[in-house]
Structures are given as C-alpha cells and as structure tokens.
Amino acid sequence: MTQGPDDQDQPTPPPYGQVPPPPPPPQQGYPQPGYPYGASPQAPYGVHPGTGLPYSDKQKLVAGLLQILIPLGIGRFYIGDTKTGVWQLVVTVLTCGLGALWPFIDGIVILATDSKDANGLPLRN
C-alpha cells in the first residue's frame, strides 16, 4: 500500500476521545511599550540576579551614607528597620556618643554587602 502526496499533507487526527491542543498564541517580537527589556510593574527597579527578588525602592548608597555621616541610626530608619534604628539611637545617646561606632560600622556593612530593607527586598545600587 503506497501513500500519495495527498496523504502526507494531512495532519494526523488525535486519538479517539482526545481534544486536539489549541494553537499556540501569536508571538510578539517587541516588549510592551513603556517597559524596557525585563522590566515589569511588579519589579519597577529590576530583579536581583542571584535571588530573583525585585529590588527595593530604597538605595544602598543613601542608606550607607546616612549611617556613616549621621551615626544615629538614620540609615536604618530610611530602609524601614525602625527597631534597629531606635536601638542605635538609644545606645549612641546613652553612651554620650561612644555608641556611634555601631551605626558607623553598620553603614560600612550596608555599603559592602547585599543588604535588605524591612520587607526583605535587596537594596538597589
């Protein structure tokens, strides 16, 4: 039994009782207007490449410099970590300024590491 050219052009029907799969959606070659490559409304500042978490709206440089230049826990208040900010403020006041070493070192740590804000999102650069 030979098959002619007409038999090869016909798609094979699905097995009995199964519905054929829907056709694939049309592909769009360009991203949506207003969103650059990879940006989305859920991650307006981008996504951290290591963890996949969206970046925070707070900046690492601002938080670190506030901690270093004003060593009263102001940088911690900026990123939303008010508990640590209050502790740093209280320690600095109660030790007559000697406790300002803690926020100063904390500012260096914020700048040197992948710090997170109060919501657990990584600070953006």
TrEMBL record:
Residues 11-28 have a biased composition (Pro residues). Residues 29-38 have a biased composition (Low complexity). Residues 57-108 form the TM2 domain. Keywords: Membrane, Transmembrane, Transmembrane helix. InterPro entries: TM2. One of its GO terms (cellular component) is membrane. It is found in: Membrane. Residues 1-51 are annotated as: Disordered. Pfam families: TM2. The chain crosses the membrane at residues 61-79, 85-105. Its main location: membrane. It is a multi-pass membrane protein. This is TM2 domain-containing membrane protein YozV.
